[in-house]
Amino acid sequence: SQQGEEDPQALSIQEGENATMNCSYKTSINNLQWYRQNSGRGLVHLILIRSNEREKHSGRLRVTLDTSKKSSSLLITASRAADTASYFCATDTSYSGAGSYQLTFGKGTKLSVIP
Amino acid sequence: DVKVTQSSRYLVKRTGEKVFLECVQDMDHENMFWYRQDPGLGLRLIYFSYDVKMKEKGDIPEGYSVSREKKERFSLILESASTNQTSMYLCASSYRRSYGYTFGSGTRLTVV
User: Fold this and answer.
1) Short-list B63, B60, B112, CA closest to B83
2) How many whole angstroms separate alpha carbon A52 and alpha carbon A33?
3) What is the Cα–Cα distance from A108 to A100, expressed in whole angstroms?
4) Backbone angles phi, psi at A33, to 5 degrees
5) What is the pLDDT of residues A3-55, one digit of tens each?
6) CA-based Rg of chain B, rounded to a whole angstrom?
7) Were B111 and a residue from A19, A52, B65, B81 both cysteine, which residue would form a disulfide, CB within 3.0 to 4.6 Å?
């Protein structure tokens, strides 16, 4: 079952502009993560934000989390052609005391950065 | 650098064959996962394992089984391959829940 849904499905911007992608989810979470996938390859973990955090930064990445709206956003500042990829949000909804856990991924936002 | 290695990048198998997809991680991670990725459907969880010999079904386990005899190796088995199992298969591992997944490069399986 799909938990996270990214918006927009596709985004095309000029190099140097900022890119914003959104993720909405349905049930309460332990944490939310963002991943990047270059064409035909495996996913790369970008950033994890816990349910009690509101904002996190990593280099040119900024992630926000609004648990009251069940939504998150990923901002990439000063985008580069190398940022061209698909971006996925993933949610951990497992009970926090559970011995096992898994992530549920959205369908992704395809970002194209034009040089 | 930590690594998750999937044994094949591309694989072509015939309908009805038994198919083994191998995944090895060198990070001593407890948790390992198998997903399949299809256009328009995103990533869907097939099976996962949180310890040696332990396994749990994900969202779409039908037609698949798994084996985890050693901590570093998690195998996905297609008991009798069918054309609707043509897909990109992604293996991942994780240290614990507060850490992200490390993914392998994926195996693109075509069943003809």
Assistant:
1) B112
2) 14
3) 25
4) -130, 155
5) 678 889 999 999 999 999 999 999 889 999 999 999 888 999 999 999 999 99
6) 13
7) B81
